[in-house]
């Protein structure tokens, strides 16, 4: 382990998980970073960026990828490039698309999945995808290890929900054999217009056996429309155009009811994304 000092900033670089967790317990005000590509971009009090940093990048336990028959586990400090290269043929295609969309090759060489999930002020590219994939996170602090579902770790405006001295130490992504997966990101990151749609579907012959969709607007508000999902599960493909229109109307009403503050443009985008996805589903027969 080492401690570097630069101007007013002190950087602690542990090489073992034990040293990392002990240091973080004793310095709960220190800010952990992995690639640093988000933290230093957003540099400011919102991310808690202060005088003391902990570099997660030298802890080997946090930099590994492993897999079983049922899931793949990714260390939070593994670079996005490495995840893409190692997991390309096994990871869900929607996640692959989200990872490929992050920045450029230079950014992806440093950026990590842990940092993408744990950004406090924004919901970043992988969040609406991971939300659909039943992802679980291992959280550790000295003397305690627990597993949480991503939808409990970050829920609505809340989260990431970490105890003092606690870090994400593993990200578990189940393999679920989706038949159709779509990820679409529009407009510039960190602008109110930024928009992500993700949809995944499993079919049994021509019947929808599972369907999940998420929409993320302005890098913050993330919506799942479970009643529309429930309406579609069990339906036979193709979905007739009039039923597609009815789903669009239901979605519209739901958003107006639950998010009255949302502007018409975004309501329209959400509705259009659902239409587009249903079209892809019909074509996938
Ligand atoms: C040019 C450019 C383009 C970009 N484009 C995109 C894009 O298209 N989509 C996108 O999503 N992002 C984008 N980003 C932002 C960023 O690169 C990614 O979100 C990246 O995945 C963040 O990972 P990181 O390791 O760099 O995070 P860091 O900056 O290291 O950390 C981010 C936050 O997570 C916390 N954290 C990190 N690891 C842990 C952990 N294990 N436990 C608890 N907390 C932790 C940190 O304290 C910090 O608050 C871009 C950045 C740049 C510079």
Care to describe what's here?
The structure is a single chain. A hairpin with a 3-residue loop joins strand 12 (207-217) and strand 13. This protein has helices at 17-26, 80-87, 93-100, 105-110, 113-118, 127-130, 150-153, 226-232, 241-258, 264-283; strands spanning 2-6, 9-13, 31-33, 52-55, 65-67, 71-74, 136-141, 144-149, 167-174, 180-186, 195-204, 207-217, 221-224. Strands 5-6-9-7-8 form a 5-stranded antiparallel beta sheet. It has a 4-stranded mixed beta sheet with strand order 1-2-4-3, with no helix packed on it. By secondary structure, the chain is α+β, with helices and mostly antiparallel strands. It folds into 3 domains: 2-58, Uridine Diphospho-n-acetylenolpyruvylglucosamine Reductase, domain 2 (2-Layer Sandwich), CATH 3.30.43; 60-174, Uridine Diphospho-n-acetylenolpyruvylglucosamine Reductase, domain 3 (2-Layer Sandwich); 180-283, CO dehydrogenase flavoprotein, C-terminal domain (Enolase-like, domain 1, 2-Layer Sandwich), CATH 3.30.390.50. The chain is built from 10 helices and 13 strands. Helix 9 runs antiparallel to helix 10 (264-283). It starts with a strand and ends with a helix.
Features:
single chain; 285 residues; alpha+beta; Uridine Diphospho-n-acetylenolpyruvylglucosamine Reductase, domain 2; Uridine Diphospho-n-acetylenolpyruvylglucosamine Reductase, domain 3; Enolase-like, domain 1; 3 domains; 5-stranded antiparallel sheet; 4-stranded mixed sheet; 13 strands; binds flavin-adenine dinucleotide
In brief, what are we looking at here?
GO terms for molecular function: FAD binding; oxidoreductase activity. This protein is 32% helix and 27% strand.
